[in-house]
Design brief:
Elements: H1 16-19, E1 26-27, H2 39-49, H3 61-75, E2 84-87, H4 90-101, E3 107-112, H5 116-124, E4 128-137, E5 140-143, H6 145-153, E6 157-161, H7 173-186, E7 189-193, H8 214-218, E8 220-224, E9 238-241, H9 245-253, H10 264-276, H11 278-302, E10 316-320, H12 330-338, E11 340-341, E12 343-344, E13 355-359, H13 364-378
Parallel strand pairs: 1-11, 3-4, 3-6, 6-7, 7-8
Antiparallel strand pairs: 2-9, 4-5, 8-9, 10-13, 12-13
Helix pairs in contact: 2-10, 3-10, 4-5, 4-9, 11-13, 12-13
Length: 381
């Protein structure tokens, strides 16, 4: 079994997460877990490095076949190898999709709060961003059905995120069917970021929105990767699944010299992840779920004024700190007074300055340390 409690020193390794702040700051911000990659992935990379030539890479038929089999096994989703387009990341993928399938002045719908690359993407292409807010409720994060329908009617594309970052919401089949039906009614393209699709808790099962209807399959660009689940984001490898041939060809043509070939080691890591690292993933999910439960219990015990709905997926928690009286930037407060770095709420939308996003994808000792530093900071008030 993997020892997820092991604290691995990541400073001075070129880690974005651990180099952004001074050495006395505990980083809990970017969506990057502090766990060693699965041994099967490391072994596959070592085997590939035994061959000394590292030229441009191309996805082998074996990797395409593994993804086809994975989609069928997990979601009863029957795709073909040709439906898969490999990419150096999900973010380049949804930007490619917007560039290919919209025109300046079109409206693009997003659900806020939403992580910054999605929030900013419409602006890169002269598009109008429409925001449909998710709201906390007794049953979890909820959509405003009437408002969402009106926004969808006015939007050329819906840039979707499921499981949702930062709230950890996992959309139900009924919600996905509603979204797909609205997209069909209003001829709206669905661009679906499903990068956290393997990271679900409490026995939930991910449903790709493309699978809910024949029409949804025909109008959806689905974006996935091994990167978040298997903690190999630095290898810059992802893929799109696009069953509509005309959309797929238009999407692929939108590379325009900006989105180059995929990292050859990332392709090897993805193959090993999907074909060999299932046991590691099961162990990871159990550890993350336990961390999630510990975090929610400790927030209630130590910080009763912080509101946080338990994430249904991902390794991210969305903390409402407005009742603490820290103003519009609690991230800056905790950084200054507790030497712990979270993601600032305002990065997820203008209305969310009083929030922070916490990454609990780390050894329990680091999670406990982060909470202790929050307590220390609040004791200065």
């Amino acid at each position: 079994m993997t020892d997820f409690d092991a604290v691995i020193e990541r400073r001075d390794t070129g880690s974005s997460k651990w180099s952004r702040y001074p050495g006395d700051v505990l980083p809990m911000w970017v969506a990057d877990m502090d766990f060693a990659a699965a041994p099967e992935i490391v072994a596959a990379l070592q085997a590939r490095l035994a061959h000394p030539v590292l030229g441009y890479g191309v996805a082998r038929d074996e990797l395409r076949a593994v993804i086809v089999a994975d989609m069928a096994a997990k979601y009863d989703w029957v795709i073909t190898p040709d439906d898969i387009v490999f990419l150096p990341g999900v973010e380049p993928g949804f930007n490619m999709a917007l560039k290919a399938m919209t025109e300046p002045g079109d409206a693009v719908l997003v659900q806020t709060p939403i992580y910054r690359p999605i929030l900013n993407a419409p602006g890169h292409w002269g598009l109008i961003r429409r925001e449909a807010e998710l709201s906390p409720s007794a049953g979890g994060w909820a959509m405003d059905a009437s408002g969402f329908a009106a926004d969808m009617a006015a939007s050329r594309a819906f840039l979707f995120c499921n499981p949702h970052n930062p709230t950890g919401k996992v959309f139900s089949l009924a919600e996905l069917q509603t979204i797909a039906a609205l997209a069909e009614t209003h001829d709206t393209l669905i661009i679906s970021d499903e990068i956290h699709c393997d990271l679900l808790f409490d026995g939930r099962r991910h449903v790709p929105i493309a699978t809910v209807s024949a029409e949804a399959r025909n109008r959806t660009i689905t974006l996935m990767a091994a990167s978040k689940t298997y903690n190999v984001a630095g290898l810059k490898t992802a893929f799109a699944i696009i069953e509509n041939r005309a959309i797929r060809e238009k999407f692929a043509a939108s590379r325009l010299g900006m989105v180059d070939s995929v990292n050859i080691l990332g392709l090897e890591a993805s193959l090993a992840a999907f074909s060999k690292a299932g046991v590691w993933k099961t162990e990871l999910l159990a550890y993350l779920e336990a961390n999630r439960d510990f975090l929610i219990a400790e927030l209630a015990r130590r910080f009763p004024r912080i509101r946080c709905l338990a994430p249904e997926g991902t390794f991210l928690a969305w903390l409402d700190c407005r009742a603490l009286g820290l103003g519009d930037d609690p991230q800056a407060f905790f950084l200054e007074h507790g030497k712990v770095a979270f993601s600032a709420g305002h990065e997820f939308g203008a209305a969310y300055g009083g929030f922070i996003r916490l990454n609990f994808g780390c050894p329990r000792a680091l999670l406990e340390e982060g909470l202790a530093r929050m307590e220390k900071a609040l004791a200065t008030l």
